[in-house]
Specification:
It is built from no helices and 24 strands. By secondary structure, the protein is an all-beta fold. The strands form 5 sheets. The chain has a 7-stranded antiparallel sheet, with no helix packed on it. A hairpin with a 2-residue loop joins β1 and β2. It is elongated, with a radius of gyration of 18 Å.
Length: about 290
């Protein structure tokens, strides 16, 4: 038999049994026996597969990067997962990333759950805003990951530069690179085998730009001195995107790279992973998708 299970993040509440509005997982061959659990903070959830259930279908969306309209989209992963009644699956629901603006000096975002990278800003003479990287969504059995949907990279903005920079989309076999402006150097997207490289920074560092890693996005970085800049965090993923880096050149901007998706061929009967498109999530035509994921 098959069993429907839905996992998602809606408006800051994390659900098992509801449709996605942010990052989310949907395991839903039909709507006949939906079990609903809720929790108010982003933590992993344990689900015991009912006896007699032999397969679940997983529709999984990663969370978007921070800075509304410019954070990279989360990716999408689909898989058919053979199961044995009584085994336990561990489910993580990616948290949408936040943004931060500087009134003066330096500031950074928090990390989006599970491991999105931080966005950072430095104000000298102009306002600036940066988004963190979005969290991955995943399903695993013990320590073995079955599917991962990558999170999007954080976007960024500096007043009076004319163009905002978009974070790289997450998901697919490789996440997308972020965008850059002026003295900024963008974060690269994660792949199937390594995290995306951080933007290169020269000078005295205030925040260090870091590479993406296994199951983690890199942090944005910037230098000290007479400079206004913004750097997005890398999206979480199978391998996360790198954080952007801002150099001394004035009004520099560097968005974070997107994290990659993943399907474990040994633990799935069929599956694929798709990258988001710009700031728009992948596979929105699916009947289980709800606007905002």
């Amino acid at each position: 038999g098959v069993y429907p299970l839905i996992v998602t993040n809606v408006g800051g509440n994390y659900y098992v049994g509801m449709i996605s509005l942010e990052g989310g997982i949907i395991i839903i061959p039909d709507y006949t026996n939906i079990v609903t659990l809720t929790h108010s903070t982003p933590v992993e959830q344990m689900w015991s597969v009912p006896v007699g259930v032999t397969q679940v279908y997983a529709y999984v969306w990663g969370a978007g990067g921070g800075f509304a309209g410019y954070g990279g989209a989360g990716g999408f992963t689909y898989a058919q997962i053979p199961t044995i009644g009584g085994e336990t699956l561990t489910i993580e629901v990616g948290q949408g990333a936040k943004s931060v603006s500087s009134g003066a000096g330096y500031a950074k975002t928090t990390n989006a759950y599970p491991n999105g990278g931080c966005g950072v800003v430095r104000k000298y003479d102009n306002n600036s805003t940066a988004g963190g990287g979005g969290g991955r969504s995943s399903i695993r059995n013990g320590t073995n990951y079955i599917v991962v949907a990558g999170g999007g990279g954080g976007g960024c903005y500096v007043w009076n530069t004319g163009v905002n920079q978009e974070g790289g989309s997450g998901g697919g076999l490789s996440g997308e690179d972020g965008q850059r402006y002026g003295g900024g150097d963008y974060g690269r997207g994660g792949t199937q085998t390594e995290g995306g490289a951080a933007g290169v920074i020269t000078g005295t560092l205030y925040y260090v730009a870091t590479d993406g890693g296994f199951l983690s996005g890199g942090n944005g970085g910037c230098v000290t001195g007479i400079v206004t800049g913004a750097a997005g965090g890398g999206g979480d993923g199978w391998f996360g995107g790198g954080g952007g880096g801002c150099n001394v050149a004035g009004n520099s901007k560097a968005a974070g790279g997107g994290g990659s998706g993943y399907v474990n061929p040994a633990l799935t009967a069929f599956g694929y992973t798709i990258r988001g498109v710009g700031t728009g999530p992948a596979m929105t035509e699916f009947p289980y998708y709800v606007s905002g994921a």
